[in-house]
Write a structure and sequence with these properties.
The complex is a heterodimer of chains A (about 90) and B (about 450). Chain A is an alpha+beta fold and about 90 residues long. Chain A contains 3 helices and 5 strands. Chain A is globular and about 40 Å long. The two termini of chain B are about 15 Å apart. Chain B folds into 2 domains: about 1-80, no CATH class; about 105-440, TIM Barrel, CATH 3.20.20. The chains are: A alpha+beta (about 90), B alpha/beta (about 450).
Chain lengths: ~90, ~450
Amino acid sequence: MKLKNDFIVQDIDDTQFLVPLGHEAFNGIVRSNKTAAFIVNCLKNDTTKDQIVDAMCLQYNAPRETIDADVEEILATLRSINALEE
Amino acid sequence: MIEICKPDAALAKVILPQKAQPGISYVPSQFVLPFSHNGKQYVFNVFTKQLIEGELPDSAHAGEGFDDLIEAMFLVPEGKDECAYYKSIARMMRLYGQKKGVSGYTIMPTLGCNARCVYCYEEGRKPVKMTPEIVEQTIRYILKTRSKENITISWFGGEPLLCPDIIDHICDRLREENVSFQSIMVTNGSLITPGIIEKMLTRWNLGRLQISLDGTEQDYIARKRYYADSDQYHTVLHTIGQLSEAGIRVAVRVNVDEDNWPGIPHLLDDMDRFVGHKENVTVYFSPLMNVRAGENDLAMWKKITEAAPLVNKAGFRPLAHLRSFMKFRANRCMADSGCEVIGPDGSLYPCEHCPPESRFGDIFNGTTDAQARYEFCRTDRTREMCRKCVFLPDCTSFASCPWVDAHCEEAHKINALSNLKQMLDQRADQTEEPDEDETVC
């Protein structure tokens, strides 16, 4: 899976924004927290949920189950705004 | 912090409050404009559009009692590249505002005109008119490239009303194709008849237009230089009255310089006699290009801002720019808003001034030179002189724009202070519910 091309990632200072380009299904700007920003960065290239969880486990000192749940939640949010190409 | 006007609502949703962090020295933002009015001190943030009463410290740290000013970005970390920050936010808001398809077309049915205005920037261009083939292809091009939402057609020229048949045909075809559209028009107004007004309302979906009226009768005749020797001045005044009666909003643009300025009160008197529905008529003054680029531009701007009470006293619609001044605008003009200009030969430009280097294609082949458009409209280059300007967020942020004022920062300041003070006065005077359309913050 990967972030759709019509979603632009923009980092301004220490905040990441996800901006839809003329998207019909979603009319808003997503301001990501640090976890979401990490996941969005992973999704700039084709990847899988497991690969994202692996990368987060290397980055964050947290139980894999917790990270897995976080990733699932954020992927669900991205799916709900039709931002993912799967 | 005493807040007079809230920050721009859209911007406030996007930008998080700036956290006051220990160990960082905060200084006034480059985008703050301090001023005094009626014995009180105010500070306006040109970027966020927030207005507060009070003064800013020269520097501050977290916990020294100025955290609210830091959060609201009146104070920013010393050394922050605010130009880069503003441009990033503006770019994001521009991206966000982009629609699929073209949302606005400026169509030039002809470059011909029945006047020869002394200041016309199109002087010397051939009076080319759209051929039937170009008209048909213009319709096909719009149908192919348009946004699915309501589109705006701006009729421009030359004098567009030399070709009402072309306007009829394009509007009729768009309606047949169920295209949702509205029209606006820039015209000298001399060719508007009751029949044209009827078409504006019924066939062209035209709700507002701009008419240039450059001074009193004598000045008008000398500057417009119509080919036909008839009383165009009173014709146009009468027409403005008819348009306003029909419910069409008219923006009367008065192009001014030192020579025609003394006649402005007389012009307003003349308009007063001809225009009944003044609530539909806005009058605004615009210095001629040579004035804006000349050494005496500031004197002219001062006169213009000081004349605002004259227009208000005459009963015409208040200046609309008070509203836009208090809003963050990601797009400054048609060139960076995704609109397209269709020339009478079918050429495509990003700007109605049609700089030859910005031509990016034609209605037959679409975009053939995306680079030309990109280069003209790119916003990642800011003129060096603009990087530290307090008014950068209120100005065209691309370096290719042909508009340059001789003393632009000072001119902006004159206008900004005039707007802010008018707004404060309006707030003070407001004794009844404001017209929703005129609410300024």
